[in-house]
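User: I'm putting together a teaching handout on how sequence relates to shape, and I'd like one worked example. Could you take FtsH-binding integral membrane protein from Nesterenkonia jeotgali, show the sequence you're using, and then write out its predicted structure as tokens right after it?

Assistant: Happy to. First the sequence, then the structure tokens directly below it.
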Amino acid sequence: MPRQTRAQREWRPGQVKPPRSVKTLFASTVLCLEAVLMFFFSLMAWGLNQNESYAWWLFGGSLALAVVLVLTCAVLQRPGGYILGWVLQFLMLFGFIAVALVTAEGLIVPLAAIPGVAFMACWWYALNKGAQLDDEKLDRFRAEEALAENPTSEENKND
């Protein structure tokens, strides 16, 4: 017998699955795209400073932040998950500024902060719009549940 997940073991016939969170989907998408940004930023920062002693620190730190951004997707629905996401947003932005202050290319590297600010705006939009869509989706789910439980009620005949 193949191994089943917990959701598969707990499933019963007729059971309706609750809707998945759009907020989590949007937030995970933004975090993964930011991880890609940090990967390319690490390559750029290392390439521009490869003769300096701190080049590998820039490269490793940026890659580590990219990995943390991806891993944060797994804990978004746990308590403090979205707060961790906000912390990572500010850490990424301050990382761009710190790299600009440390490196000799201080005028070039801050341009990377522009996508950082744009992604922070995307993060804010993903959380707000995702929460709004989750509320609408939950209302629809409850209405469908009520309709399934009592399909002949007066309220349902009008629809």
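A couple of points you could highlight for students: Residues 21-143 form one domain. The chain has a mean pLDDT of 85.
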